[in-house]
Amino acid sequence: MNFTKATRKRCKMKMSLQGPSGAGKTYSALLLAKGITGNLQKVAVIDTENGSSHLYAHLGNYSVLTVESPFTPEKYIEAIHSSIKEGYECIIIDSLSHEWFGSGGILDVHGSMVGNSFTNWSKLTPRHNALIETIVNSNIHIIATMRTKTEYVIQQVNGKNIPEKLGVKAVQREDSEYEFTISFELNKNYMALISKDRTGIFKNQPELILSEKVGKAIKDWCEFDESTDNKHIKEKLLNCGDLEELDQIISQNPEYADLLRDEISYKIEDLTSINQQKFRQNGHYQH
After folding, report:
1. Contact 46, 92 (CB under 8 A)
2. What CA–CA distance (Å, rounded) separates 164 from 287?
3. List of E strands, 171-273
4. Would 23 disulfide with which of 29, 186, 228, 258, CB 3.0-4.6 Å?
5. Torsion of CA 43, 196, 135, 88, to 10 degrees
6. In the beta sheet, which residues pair with residue 93?
């Protein structure tokens, strides 16, 4: 049993986009995918929405694989493996909700099964989990869209039953969102709220419009490799000649400010000491 130092290496993004019909999930997913890959020719759409992804063909030459009912987990898994085999760099699953509530999906199959409900779930849950594991473990960027529904609860006000809106909920298994690195919630104004972000890219950012630029920022985070990139930046820090150059290096590489905190602190002390010596030599340093 051996412990190793935790380091972040290059990875493939697993992201979910949740929202009601008309919130721009497919369009936003394509923009993100374009930012991540740089070229939509490297993107495959697994379309369960009656070919709706074809509506945005003007964005680029992406490929579409139409999946029809029954929307079994095994169909999704096969589509993911086919996309990887064809050499695509990013998959958009549009939409993952059908595997849960669509014709032939998990809920549909469960509802048609006879016998004990709990026992039936023990047969279906492994099938659903196999799809989630395929998504999480595949060596490819995956963006999954999910429909949302509005949840209400009945409250009694002055003796009357009044529906009160609780919020929105993804049409998928309840814990599915937690399997993704980033989860966005789109509203009718095409604005995205960040409901989950394990990257820190969107820290303190309440909402934004999803775009190629956002996809590019996600790509840069995915391609960061602490074991190799740190060495490159450390060399730059070591060789910089003045505080202005040091500030420029830090501003251009903000993700290293915390990782290389000690190195930066030592370099500031070193450069400050050099400047003080120069001032003394030139006769400008005053005690």
Report:
1. yes
2. 71
3. 182-186, 192-197, 207-208
4. 186
5. 10
6. 46, 144
Average confidence (pLDDT) per 10 residues, the chain, 287 residues: 71 94 94 97 96 94 96 98 97 97 96 93 96 96 92 74 68 85 92 91 89 94 71 78 84 70 81 70 55
User: In the chain, what's the furthest Cα-to-Cα distance?
Assistant: 94
The first and second tokens of residue 225, run together, are: 């490799």
Sign of torsion over alpha carbons 142, 98, 72, 55: negative
Identify whether the C-beta of residue 34 lies closer than 8 Å to the C-beta of residue 59: yes
What DSSP character marks residue 69? S
Q: What is the pTM of this model?
A: 0.76
Contact at 8 Å (CB) between 106 and 118?
no
Q: How far is CA 186 from CA 168, 193, 202, 260, in A?
A: 11, 6, 15, 36
- Could you tell me if 145 and 93 are in contact, meaning their C-beta atoms sit under 8 angstroms apart? yes
Alpha carbon separation from 287 to 269, 274, 277 (Å, rounded): 19, 16, 13
> Can you tell me the distance from the alpha carbon of 212 to that of 225, in angstroms, rounded to the nearest whole number?
22
Could you give the dihedral angle defined by the CA atoms of residues 269, 275, 278 and 282, in that order, rounded to the nearest 10 degrees? -140
**What sign results for the dihedral spanned by CA atoms 142, 143, 147, 152?**
positive
Residue 77's contacts (CB-CB under 8 Å, 6 or more residues apart) are 130, 131, 134
